[in-house]
Each structure stands twice: as C-alpha cells, then as structure tokens.
Batch of 3 targets.
Target 1
Amino acid sequence: MCGCRYGKVNGLTVMASTNHRKRARSYQRAHGVSYTVALRAVTAGDGWSNGITPWLRQSQKPFNCYWCGSVEAILSWGDIGEDTERIEFYCQNPDCNAREVDVLVVDDGTDTTRRRADAKALQRFPGEVLADPVLINDDEQLGWMVRTSPLPSARTSGQVQCLFCGKQTCDVDPAGDSDIGRLTLYCRNPRCAADTAIALVGRDGTPATQNREDVTALREIDNPPPPPSADGAPRIRPVGHRTDGVLDRRRG
C-alpha cells in the first residue's frame, strides 16, 4: 500500500502520497501558504512553483519574443540560474531592440515572493506612460524599438507562452497598453503558480529605457552603487557581470 490519497487542487484531481503530504507541509511552513497551494507546488508535473527551475532555463529553446513576436528569444547570459522566480531573456532578432528583458513572478501565493525586494520595487514603480508607438512598414512588424515600433507583439497575439511552466497560457493585462516597455502576465495553467509576472525591457540602447524608475530600481538591487569614500572621491561601480550577493539582495 502506498498510502495515497486523492484530492482537488485548483479543480484538478491529484494523488498525494505520504511523501507528497510531508513535502507539502514542509513547503507550507517555508513559504507561508495554504496546504492546497503547497500540495499543488510539490505535485506540479507540467507546471511550476516557487523553488522549481523555470521551463526556459531547463529547455534552452528559442521562443516567441514578447515584443517582436519572432522565435528569436533565448535565455540571456546575464540570467542568474539560482533565482527560480526571475529569469532574463535576450532577443536575437536584429530588428528587435528588446536586448535584455527581466521576467519576474510578483505573485505566486507565497510570502517568499511577496517579500522580495525586486517584486516590491516593481509594485512601487508601476510603469510609465510612453508616447504611442508609430506603425511602420505598412503595419508589417519587422522588429521593435521603443517609441517607434508597433505595440509589443504579446499585446495583440492572444495568450503567450509562460516562461516558467512552458505552456501557452499567459494572458497579457491590457491595462498597461500605454507602457510599451513593460507587460503584466497572468498564467492560467492551473498547475503553474506564476499567477502574476512582470516582463520589463531593461536594455534597448535608449536613455528612455535606461532611465526608467523601475529599470533603475532593479539595476540598483542587482548592482548597488558603492558607498561614498571617506575622502569624497567619486564612486565607481565594479566593471563586468557580478553575481555575488545578488540573490540575497533580490530576495530582501
């Protein structure tokens, strides 16, 4: 006898073994969630939950860029592999300027995510109203560039792929249509805990993006400015991609 029990999690019937139930209780204590949410997390087969490696990081497959729509987006070299709630992608389409994009889960039902410094930063700076983009090339979308290209492809393509569970189950919040550099995504896969995620273009070669408050906030969490020197000398940031301490700062 395996000691299995059946139960409903988000409308799905799942078989919870004694081991699953023990793991669910441990997950519940660690993340401050209900037992139902915890059970979904530890029994997720084709889903995702806090602590599980996102689909994109496992698959390493190109996918449709949320901005230009081409199957040219890949995991970025700057992605921090230990951070399971945030991933970074890069679009290889030469006509697309979405060079670095962070996708961060801001709501998965856990206190762990709610306490993250970067999630709080995105809630503090909810986005910006940018000038309406101009349609180019007779409405044919060949790429994306802030303020000059069409709206992000994800706003007009129906459900898009969730980079955490890998399913084509993400709705895009239409409320942010005026901000073409940021998307709010809601994954509808009942086995995926990435209920709300934010995708934010962090680099496209323009000051408009580089100086955004939300982009600046994330950048300074990852790479905080050094403290002022005693003799008043200019503060100089370290050069290069550094990962030491980043995960701790992101998680607050």
Target 2
Amino acid sequence: MPCSVPPPLSADQISVLIDGTATPEEHTHLSQCPYCSERLAQARALEQRLVTTLKRWDCPSTQQLGEYHLGVLSAVEERVVRRHLEECALCKAEVEELRQFLATAPDEQEQPQMILVPKTRPHTFGEVIARLIPQRSSLALRGSSREPIVAEADGTTVIVEIERTPNEQIVIVGQIAADEQDGWTGALVEVRQADLLMATARVDDLGGWQCGPLPIAPSTLRITPKEGNSIILPALILAS
C-alpha cells in the first residue's frame, strides 16, 4: 500500500509521533494516510516488545530460576537468587509458574527452543558478533508462544523470532532497532546453513525483514548495512 499523501513519513517522524512531540502537520498526514498509520502501529508494537524484553535485564535467567527450584545451584548462587526473589515479584511469579508446570505436566515434551552456540572461527574486520541478551521466560511456561531471541551489537538491537511452517520448515522473522535506524534501511540479511547461502532479504524502513521457509538446521545470520560493520548472529540452532 503506497503512501496516500507523498512523501511518506520518515523513521524520525514516526519516532516523534510515538514520543508525542510530533508537529500538527505530521498528525494531519497521519490522519489522511492509512499506510503511515500502519507503520506507526508497527513501530509502537516493536517499542512495546523491546520494553517487555529488556525491562528485566538484571534478573536471573530462566535456567537459573529453574535450577534454583530444583535445588541444584551452589550455596552461593542459591543465596543470591533467594535474595533476589525476596525483592522481585516477577521472578517469584515465574518460579511459581515453573513449580505448577512441573507438578501438572511432568511428562510433557519441551517445545523447540532457539539457542545460541558460540562462534568457533575468528571473524574478519568489519564484522561484529552479536551478544545474546538472556531470556527471562520459559517456553514451557508460555505454551506454544516462543520468546524471541534478542541480541545486541554496537548499540544495535536485533530481535529474531522463528515460525514453524506446516511442512516442518522454519521462517526467520527479524527486527532491528538502532539509534540511527535509517542506516539499516536496505541492509542485506543473509542466512547460511553449513556455509551455504540459503536465503537473503533486505531490511525495510521500519527495521523488519523475513527469510524462509528454510530447513531446520544450524543457521548463521549476517546483517550488512550500506555503511559500517556487519552484525553476525552465529550458529542459531533450533533444538528440541
């Protein structure tokens, strides 16, 4: 759907609309343009997703909470987590959800989960290996809804979600959020499996992209902007 009142709003104008500091002209454009209204809705959804994902960055990981519940942490780790639970209602609720899940569905198989495996070969100049931001909620606790993978590199956040297709393949859906968002528009996304290029895509003006369907196999993502370093998410594996 093209912009009804060209030119379309820029990424910066979308940002000020979210912040509530837009000009009357920008509000007028928005009221007359379904295309830009949809872009604003997508940007607001992304912002909410980032807030939800990152707001608990200092909490113990889901794995640590699970090990605490099972009593397999060291004495020092157990004491640290216990003190955290005294102050954090969210983590306390997650431990309780885990307890209930294990009590009511002990034989249920775990859902497939994305994990990040360290890169084994050195990267070349101009590449930055993304740092995985630990996830805060368990797939088992959240039913069939997978938590996205969130990684950070050079101040840029990359969100990756995996969707399963009916024929047992995957579609990789990604989103980039950066201070200089326009610099990532048109960036090349490459998906490789066993060093073979399996799919490519271009980042749109809202930072989104999609690749697939693809076989379920270890996948390395490389996102290359027109200028600056490439971001590498190495050896993403869909593991059960």
Target 3
Amino acid sequence: MKKTQIVVLCIVSPLLACASGSQTSHLFQKNPSVTISSQELRVQVRSLARPLAGILEKTADEIIAQSDDPIVRQKVLRTKTEAIPALFEALFRKDPGAALIDASALVEQIRQEFTDGSNMVLNDEEKQIILRAAEDMKHRLQEVYLATGASQEDIDQFWMEVEGWARRHPIEGNFAIRDSTANLLAKSNAATGGGLGAAISSAQDELADLAVRADLYAEHLPRQARWQAQLLIEEMMAEQIVAQA
C-alpha cells in the first residue's frame, strides 16, 4: 500500500469509528486518551458553520471595500453569495466525517480559485487576504481532525491529498454544482469495505441538525438577498467596462 493511501486511512479510520459508534480504530488504539463519539463529532463539525461562514463573509467584504475594480468586486461577491450556502451544504452532510472532508475540500477549492487559477484577478495584497483567511479556516478544520486522534503529521499529509483533489476538481461555474468529494475517499473505502456514507444517525440527531440549519438559513437569507442585489449592480458595472474596452 502506498504511503498516501496509508495516510488517507489514518485520517479516515477514526472518522469511520465515530460514525459507526466504535472507538477501536487504528488511531484510537494508538491514542487511547482520545475519545470522541459520533454525536461529539457531529456537534464539532456543525459548529464550524458560523465561524467559517463569518470568515468567508469578512474576507469578501474586506476585498470588496478596498478594491476599485468592479470585475474583482463582482467575482468576490459572487463567491461569497455562492460559497456560504455550499459550505452549509457540505458541513451538514448526514455523515459528519464526510461533511468534515467535504468542507475541507471546499475551502481548498476557494483558496486555489483565487490564488492559483489562471483566471485570477486579485492583486498581491488581495491575494494575501485570501491566503490568511484560507489558513484560518484550514486551522479550524484541522482542530476537529486532531480531536479524532489523527496526528498532525498525518493531517498535513492528508491535506496534500485534499489539495491535489481540489486542483483536479476546480470550481467551474456555480458552487452548487461542484464535484463530489466521494472519490477523495475511494481508496479508504476500498480498504475498509465501507465508507463515511455508512454513518448511522438517530432521528434526534437529524432533528437537531435541521433546527441548527434552519437557524443558519433564517440568519443568512436576508444577507443573501442583499448580496444578490449588490451582485446585480456589480455585474452591470462590469458589463459597462467590457463594452467600453
């Protein structure tokens, strides 16, 4: 088995253990002081929604406020408008382990979209704002990985897998139709005979998720409406610039 496959298994195994209610995975045996149940993992993953969305919103607002380029403002505003609902969708996947990995992939896709992409429109200062925000979100996500018993070394190597996946699956068009992260776990699924999709959740868990998600959407719907109106204005301004060029 290749080293990268072993790393993926080291990261995913504790997530699988949490999802199934077991705590006998390889990494839990290596780290007996670490215990996290499926419910605890679920709570930790769902609790990332507000802070990560807040980072995305604050970062976009900072760039929009300081940029005098309507094309930049349009791109950043569109990303904020689409990425936050996509983040909620990722973090509230039924399986909290799969949700954590999907959100990690989304964060990396956003970072690469603005810093590595051929269509990058940001200047160096704006790029640094994105990089700082991405690093902050990555750190918060990795704190949850650490809680499952994974070592920092394994997490760092696994994040390289996430980076590679994001590079092969860039955001194309709307965030709502971004590629599935299922193939990111294909190697671990083959080795374990299952996958993160096998998580078991109770009706009570699902009702709790629904309540939290409803609160988030109620909180963000007015903002989404305002952002959509702002986006329409920015698109009109960008079209005028293109027409005058």
